[in-house]
Design goal:
Layout (H helix, E strand, L loop, with lengths): L8 H13 L16 E5 L5 E5 L11 H5 L10 E5 L2 E7 L6 E10 L15 E12 L2 E6 L4 E2 L7 H6 L4 E7 L2 E2 L5 E5 L1 H5 L9 H6 L2 E4 L5 E7 L3 E12 L10 E12 L18 E6 L8 E6 L9 H5 L10 E5 L8 H9 L2 H6 L6 E5 L17 E6 L6 E2 L3 E2 L6 E3 L1 E5 L2 H13 L13 H19 L20 H7 L30 H11 L8 H15 L27 H15 L3 H4 L8 H22 L5 E3 L11 E3 L2 H14 L10 H4 L7 H16 L2 H14 L6 H12 L7 H19 L11 H7 L11 H15 L6 H18 L2 E6 L5 E6 L9 E3 L4
Parallel strand pairs: 8-16, 18-19, 18-20, 20-24
Antiparallel strand pairs: 1-2, 3-4, 4-11, 5-6, 5-15, 6-7, 7-9, 10-11, 12-14, 13-14, 14-15, 16-17, 21-24, 22-23, 25-26, 27-28, 27-29
Helix pairs in contact: 7-10, 9-16, 14-16, 16-19, 17-21, 19-22, 22-24, 22-25, 24-25
Length: 872
């Protein structure tokens, strides 16, 4: 279980797609007397690489005193010098070949950039590991790879070393030897001034704004500052661009960036092996030094290095402070009223670290002022910071940067977008206003918003501690428990704040529930205990794993400690925004509350003198929440539970959802969706903003639900279930029968039901005549299945025979007569079914593939060597 990192497999697929989009950057031109020339190229995999293509005119090695003169060194990791507008690093022999993490962040960016996630000061541009090496009279920067490894004591070590040569990123001539010849001086001006991919603008922004290259005349190095374990270099770079986001007359975009070069520990932290049963972000390497009879994929988790100050007290079970506390600083640009809540969200994690034996392990602090610490910078890689962005993006995120050798988390910059408050306000209102009179207003109080900010702060800090989303956590609590005041006061809404278990939409008026938030819970304490507990002595990672396995198996089967990964649509437990252990029951309660909220939106959010923008927003939020409930229920149909296990654990890893639950899901859809949700038609409120589209709104909800149910991957799993479990399975035949009973219920269909029936026929037609393959560049069938996109060759499967049979049953059951509109509707349905069964398709020449005419399936006639175009 520890040897393959299955967590977030879908992210690997996304990474493949992102890499495929990368493009080459413009060539960096230099003058003849410069000693460093850089050229960017595009590798076979699509990523940008940089290499030297030749040195300029040789200037020879000077005496240190002649070159430096009386220039005062900025002492630190490397002594740095600014001489006649050029910047020099004095690289000591003791740091040659030491690994250094290089992190580049934006400091300031132009207005109007739309590249989400890379557009604000403080956000990461790139990170890379460098090693400075000397060879004769030159110094090189090498970029090591950590994808393949073998321990130095292993017989495979030399073989791995021979096939894992570190790339050279840049080269420099030695300008001088220092006074005692224990180091060399190199000119790094062109390195930091250049358009180097590792420390410059990312390719996606270059492509977006048609950037052709760096304008050296409008670019410069602002400052270079050296500290004991890092060097901070701030640059201003102006790029020639033909599509500025705000003003094309400039023909350019200007960015301010900060590059941190941070010395990695000489002795790496001991890595902790990954376990799919406990959620952690991690990294994977191919390890040839394990002694196995194959190349093993070894995965390590990401975590901070915590060691007790007093090992003896720790061993006695006492809470002990760590040698080095985890510290997060709040961006000075943060509005003052929100700072205490952000800090509280950080400090809340001390409860979880106590489960691992540490006290005061983590703390949030206000950033020091310039007077308190003139050297402090929010871009400095030594500091973790909650960065506040003046942005209309409704989000926040918690990244971290880790040592690629071991997974040790070194720092984090949490991204906090100002408009996340809008998201919180809308969701908290829509999910709780039925039972929470304190949110029945246009604008929340600062105290109310502050508590919501605290919740999000805790969630995002969890990510920076190495914890991914645990989408399976909320399933642990029974639905009815979330209607209990005593239960929710103690437990919140889920055992993990890392779930997307938002606010308590299940509690009903009269239940008395007032604690409506998620909080750090039982699973969070367990996952931190698993990842951060300290094991004294010289135990290997494998020995620690064996001890951790005992803990994990002790908790196996207890839903409080269940980890459900993000990135699959197989398991109905693993959904975002859901609550409780039964989606049908929870969603019924949720819809009941939406029915209470919708008629009161205008009254509860009344704003004198304002237009109805807020009413429109919240009405759409109601529809969005309703759609979430529908999605939660639908995933039960054709669903499978996923419980990762090891050989010494009994039971299935994958098992199908029970027949009764799947049937209940379709019954819910028939009652709550396919029976027209006329409660959404509030004529008084709709008259304020709806200009004749309510039928389309409801049609979209219903038809999308049909398409989701009749998803080819879902049907493929249902056939698979039937082949394995026979009569115990909920079959496609039963699904069609149940859907037909709701969609074609007796009675004269109104305009909504007519739309729904046409949508159902069109979806069946699509299954019968259109390709249903999935296209994700670089993804294997196994990876697609792991995401829930169960592969199926629809043309050869049982789907099309079953669809034909279903269309035939609908044809024979359609009534005749009725008023003019109803009669026309049934005539139209029969024609749609006929077109589905006998579609008119383009005919292609079997030799050239060119269309040459039309013909109807069913005749199967050949026309000058032409056959129907393939549909699979």
């Amino acid at each position: 279980m520890n040897k393959t990192l299955r967590v977030n497999t879908y992210l690997g697929v996304a990474a493949i797609a992102i890499a495929a989009m990368a493009s080459s950057c413009a060539t960096k031109k230099t003058t003849a007397d410069r000693t460093l020339t850089l050229k960017t190229t595009t590798t076979q995999g699509g990523s940008t690489a940089v290499a030297t293509i030749g040195a300029g005119k040789k200037e020879g090695i000077k005496k240190f005193s002649d070159l430096v003169g009386k220039t005062k060194a900025d002492t630190g990791l490397f002594n740095t010098y600014k001489i006649d507008g050029k910047y020099y690093f004095e690289i000591p022999d003791s740091l040659i070949s030491r690994e250094m993490l290089v992190v580049t962040r934006f400091v300031k960016t132009p207005a109007g950039l739309k590249s989400f996630g890379q557009q604000y000061g403080g956000e990461e541009v790139n990170n890379q590991v460098w090693k400075w090496e000397r060879h004769d009279k030159q110094v090189f920067i090498r970029v090591p790879s950590y994808s393949v490894k073998a321990d130095s004591t292993s017989d495979m070590y030399q073989s791995v070393k021979n096939s894992n040569l570190d790339a050279i990123l840049a080269s420099f001539d030695v300008k001088a030897y220092n006074k005692d010849t224990t180091g060399v001086l190199v000119d790094v001006t062109d390195l930091y001034n250049g358009d180097l991919a590792a420390i410059g603008l990312p390719d996606n922004i270059k492509k977006m704004y048609k950037i052709t290259g760096l304008d050296n005349g409008r670019s410069y190095i602002d400052t270079v500052k050296s500290f004991p374990i890092n060097i901070e270099t701030r640059t201003l770079k102006t790029y020639r661009a033909s599509e500025s986001p705000t003003d094309n007359t400039n023909g350019a975009l200007t960015f301010e960036l900060n590059t941190s070069m941070l010395l990695l520990p000489k002795t790496p932290m001991k890595a902790r092996l990954n376990d799919d049963r406990v959620g952690y972000f991690g990294q994977q390497q191919t390890d040839y030094g394990t002694g196995a009879q194959k190349a093993e994929a070894t995965a390590y988790i990401h975590r901070w290095k915590l060691e007790p100050k007093d090992e003896a007290a720790y061993a006695r079970g006492e809470l002990v402070e760590p040698k080095k506390q985890i510290v997060y600083y709040i961006d000075p640009a943060t509005p003052k009223k929100w700072v205490p809540y952000l800090i509280a969200g950080i400090n809340d994690w001390n409860k979880a670290f106590e489960a691992a034996g540490f006290k005061n392990a983590i703390v949030g602090k206000e950033a020091p002022t310039a007077k308190q610490d003139p050297e402090f910078s929010t871009e400095d890689a030594r500091y973790s910071v909650v960065r506040y962005f003046a942005s209309d993006v409704q989000n926040a995120y918690g990244p971290h940067i880790s040592d690629p050798r071991t997974g040790e988390i070194l720092e984090s910059h949490v991204g906090w977008y100002h408009n996340v408050m809008m998201l919180l306000r809308n969701w908290f209102f829509i999910q709780t206003a039925a039972v929470n009179p304190h949110v029945r207003m246009a604008k929340f109080t600062d105290a109310q918003m502050g508590e919501l900010i605290r919740f999000v702060s805790s969630h995002e800090i969890g990510h920076t501690l190495g914890l991914p989303h645990n989408f399976g956590s909320s399933y642990a609590y029974p639905v009815d428990s979330l209607r209990s005041k005593s239960f929710t006061d103690k437990h919140g809404t889920a055992p993990s704040i890392m779930d997307y278990a938002r606010f308590n939409y299940i509690a009903q008026p009269g239940d008395g529930v007032t604690h409506l938030y998620p909080q750090i819970g039982e699973y969070d304490l367990w996952s931190v205990k698993w990842g951060y507990s300290y094991f004294p002595g010289k135990k290997t990672a494998q020995q620690e794993k064996e001890m951790l396995d005992v803990w994990t198996k002790e908790r196996a089967g207890n839903p409080l400690y269940y980890y459900g990964r993000q990135g699959t649509s197989i398991d109905p437990r693993l959904q975002n925004e859901d609550l409780g252990d039964n989606a049908m029951k929870a969603s019924t309660y949720g819809i009941a509350n939406l029915k209470r909220i919708l008629p009161n939106i205008e009254k509860w959010t009344f704003q004198k003198g304002e237009e109805y923008d807020d009413l429109v927003t919240l009405y759409n939020e109601v529809i969005g929440q309703y759609n979430r409930y529908i999605g939660h229920v639908t995933m039960n149909i054709g669903g499978m539970s996923e419980n990762f296990k090891t050989y010494d654990q009994k039971g299935a890893v994958y098992s199908f959802i029970g027949k009764n639950l799947q049937h209940d899901a379709v019954t819910f859809l028939n009652q709550q969706v396919f029976t027209t949700p006329k409660w959404l038609i509030n004529a008084d409120e709709l008259s304020k903003f709806d200009n004749g589209v309510v039928i389309s709104r409801i049609k979209a909800v219903q038809v999308n639900a049909v398409a989701n149910v009749l998803n080819a991957s879902r049907l493929a799993r249902m056939f698979d279930n039937q082949s394995k479990n026979g009569a115990k399975a909920y079959t496609v035949t039963e699904l069609f029968t149940d859907l037909r009973s709701g969609i074609f219920a007796s009675g004269v269909p109104d305009e909504f039901k007519r739309n729904l029936q046409r949508g159902y026929i069109d979806r069946l037609k699509s299954l019968l005549n259109e390709d249903a393959s999935f296209s994700f560049p670089g993804a294997t069938a196994a990876q697609l299945a792991n995401m829930g996109l169960t592969p199926i060759n629809i043309a050869l499967s049982d789907i099309r025979p079953m669809v034909r049979a279903e269309l035939a049953k609908i044809t024979t059951s359609l009534p005749k007569g009725g008023d003019a509109l109803t009669s026309a509707h049934y005539t139209d349905l029969r024609l749609r079914i006929k077109e589905a069964l006998y579609p008119t398709r383009p005919v292609v020449n079997i030799n050239s593939g060119s269309p040459v005419g039309r013909f109807t399936d069913g005749t199967m006639q050949q026309n000058n060597g032409c056959w129907p175009a393939t549909t699979f």
